[in-house]
Write a structure and sequence with these properties.
By secondary structure, the chain is of the alpha/beta class. It has two domains: about 375 residues, ANL, N-terminal domain (Rossmann fold, 3-Layer(aba) Sandwich); about 100 residues, 2-Layer Sandwich (GMP Synthetase, Chain A, domain 3). It contains 15 helices and 26 strands. The strands form seven sheets. The protein has a seven-stranded mixed sheet, sandwiched between helices. α3 links the parallel β3 and β4. The longest helix is centred in the first third of the chain and has 17 residues. The protein starts with a helix and ends in an 8-residue tail after the last helix.
């Protein structure tokens, strides 16, 4: 049985005085880190937190985020990472839905959130004061691997986010899957580039701790800062979304740094263009390029495609790779029957990394936890060598810059506008973000001069910026529909995707 304290226990045995985290001028050894985690748990106990209580964090990547990510679950609580790109109503919803009473944050604009929780712990001010005055508490006591470790909120198909319940076993399994797929050594140095509230950003944290390896958090994404950190710390490994790879490749081509230490650069979260792989490969010739596929519900790793730099002209370049060690991938028909090689159906992932369910949403949980695994909503097929190829997404999800955007959530906002009669939202190709949110709107007869910029501004008031449509087309004709009246988004999407080299459309 393993819980989140076990990777840290090993690091304390094999490399207690080595630097675990470096952030600017700050360096924290594994011994320091363990002691700070103990003080954090003691401070939370002092505030009245009890086993199973949820503790939210809203912050950019930093050493304190690592402490909360490991310390909160190891102390018997549940970590609730909040999306820093969410609008205030979305953040308030997540806090209320999770029942979190304590919020750790590096932001000042949290008045609305302070009304929802009992305690706001500011980083670094109050956070450091609390740790300095706290009585250390033992980590890992009375915790089972089946206990809830984290609630990770994802976009909801009905307009409300879902809290993905990940247990200690789920997160530990993911760490072992990662280590089996991407071997690491204690001497490796990882740049945590993707935001840690995101499943991709936190993917390798426990694996690196288990090896006693150094991790360097990137506070906010900036391509120049990424290259500077790679050069300064001799970074070996990093993972980001495709838009990040595109940006750092452009920066490296324009203003080269010494990035010869980089040996692996992984990406996931959204479709990637072949040209981005090509330019990234030439910008980082020492690095193996790796694509990972999964979901928050799979903790998140499910498949991996290695050495993309050598596959650009190979049909396999359009695949998601093969199941990682510890996972099993099958394709199912509408009745749940496993389909043979080459036949298209819904992708099912099974393994010990599959979530416990959605917080307080039993019906939605039951709709995806079937046949012994997790039905991803992605439609695809397996080839004769076990490579997974995706052909569609049955949930109409848009993946923009690694963030999931559900079309129905954006449509719900557009329909609130008094001038909108019909609205359809879908993803279109975007060189920077992988996909961009796009909308087609039919105005009401009394509002024929509906202005796209006004609608974009209206959306921005209600949802996070990354969900707001980048473009809106106004048309007088009704939206195309099927016989039962379902909007045919494929017809609306088709002109935008024609000739695209993306694997997912």
């Amino acid at each position: 049985m393993h819980t989140l304290i076990d990777p840290l226990k090993r690091a304390l045995q094999i490399r207690p005085h080595e630097v675990a985290f470096a952030d600017g001028s700050r360096q924290v050894t594994f011994t320091d880190f363990a002691q700070r985690c103990e003080r954090l748990v003691g401070a939370l106990r002092g505030l009245g937190a009890k086993d199973g209580d949820r503790v939210a964090i809203l912050a950019n990547n930093c050493i304190e985020y690592f402490e909360a990510y490991v310390g909160v679950p190891s102390g018997g609580f549940v970590i609730v990472p909040l999306n820093t790109r969410h609008a205030m109503p979305e953040l308030i919803y997540a806090l209320k839905d999770s029942g979190a009473k304590i919020l750790i944050t590096d932001r000042d604009d949290v008045e609305g959130l302070a009304e929802v929780v009992d305690h706001v712990i500011g980083i670094p001010g109050r956070y450091e004061e609390m740790l300095a005055g706290a009585q250390p508490a033992a980590l890992g006591k009375h915790i089972a691997e089946t206990d809830l470790a984290g609630l990770f909120y994802t976009g909801g198909t009905t307009g409300a986010s879902k809290g993905v319940m990940l247990t200690h076993r789920n997160l530990i399994s993911n760490a072992l899957n990662w280590l089996a797929s991407v071997p690491q050594s204690p001497e490796d140095r990882t740049l945590v580039m993707a935001p840690m509230f995101h499943a991709a950003g936190s993917n390798g944290i426990l694996a690196a701790i288990w090896q006693g390896a150094l991790q360097v958090p990137l506070g906010t994404f900036d391509p120049a800062a990424v290259l500077d950190l790679i050069q300064e710390h001799r970074i070996n490994l990093s993972l980001g979304v495709p838009s990040m790879l595109a940006a750092i490749a452009e920066e490296q081509h324009a203003r080269p740094r010494d990035i010869s230490s980089l040996k692996l650069l992984a990406h996931g979260g959204s479709p990637i263009a072949t040209e981005v792989i090509r330019r990234t490969s030439t910008a980082f010739p020492s690095a193996q390029l790796v694509e990972v596929y999964g979901a928050t519900e799979t903790s998140p790793l499910a498949t991996l495609l290695g050495h993309e730099e050598a596959l650009m002209d190979d049909p396999l370049a359009r695949s998601c790779g093969r199941a990682v060690v510890g996972c099993n991938i099958t394709v199912r028909d509408s009745e749940g029957n496993e389909l043979p090689t080459g036949q298209v159906g819904e992708v099912l992932v099974t393994g010990t990394n599959i979530m416990k369910g959605y917080w307080n949403k039993p019906e939605q949980t039951a709709s995806v936890l079937k046949y012994g695994g997790y039905l991803t909503g992605d439609v695809g097929y397996l080839n004769e060598d076990g490579y997974l190829f995706l052909v569609d997404r049955s949930k109409d999800m848009i993946v923009s810059g690694g963030e999931n955007v559900y079309s129905t959530e954006v449509e719900d906002v557009l329909y609130r506008h008094p001038g909108v009669l019909e609205a359809a939202v879908f993803g279109v190709p975007d060189d920077k973000w992988g996909e961009a949110v796009h909308a087609v709107v039919v105005p009401r007869p009394d509002a024929p001069t509906l202005d796209p910029s006004e609608l974009i501004g209206f959306c921005r008031e209600h949802i996070g910026g990354y969900k707001v449509p980048k473009g809106i087309d106004i048309q007088s004709d009704p939206l195309p529909k099927s016989g039962p009246g379902k909007v045919l988004k494929r017809e609306l999407r088709a002109p935008f995707w024609e000739g695209s080299d993306r694997a997912v459309n």
